[in-house]
């Protein structure tokens, strides 16, 4: 369904029947987008399995739109590059560098 594959913004929830957890994960990840995902469950093991498996920048479990000043914001795939807010956003402003020097008396394996 189009609603399940496009990045829509608004108070919308698409409900679909499923047979098992693998089908849920495959279906949820079969999108070009990955800004956020929502999981509604009473089973903490299912919540953790989905949170680990879903390709989205934020996974909400039994809630939605909850942020703090340290919560990074950003998506996966076509939902953006990098992170805003929080510690992870600092990497957008940094450049790392490696310097490797072999002195004459050093042994490099």
Uncertain spans: none
Examine the coordinates and then state which fold CATH places here, giving the name of the CATH topology: Aldehyde Dehydrogenase, Chain A, domain 2
Distance N to C terminus: 55 Å
Question: Helix count?
Answer: 3
How much helix is in the residues?
10-25%
Widest β-sheet, arrangement of strands: 1-4
Based on DSSP secondary structure assignment, what is the total number of beta strands? Answer: 4
CATH top level assignment:
Alpha Beta
CATH superfamily: Aldehyde Dehydrogenase, Chain A, domain 2
Query: How many separate structural domains?
Result: 1
Main β-sheet, in a few words?
A: 2 strands, antiparallel
If you compute it from the alpha carbons, what radius of gyration comes out, rounded to the nearest whole angstrom?
20 Å
Descriptive overview:
The radius of gyration is 20 Å and the shape is elongated. It has one domain: 3-Layer(aba) Sandwich (Aldehyde Dehydrogenase, Chain A, domain 2), CATH 3.40.309. The longest helix has 10 residues. It has 109 residues and is of the alpha+beta class. It has a two-stranded antiparallel sheet. It has a two-stranded parallel ribbon with strand order 2-3. The protein has 3 helices and 4 strands, in the order H-H-E-E-H-E-E.
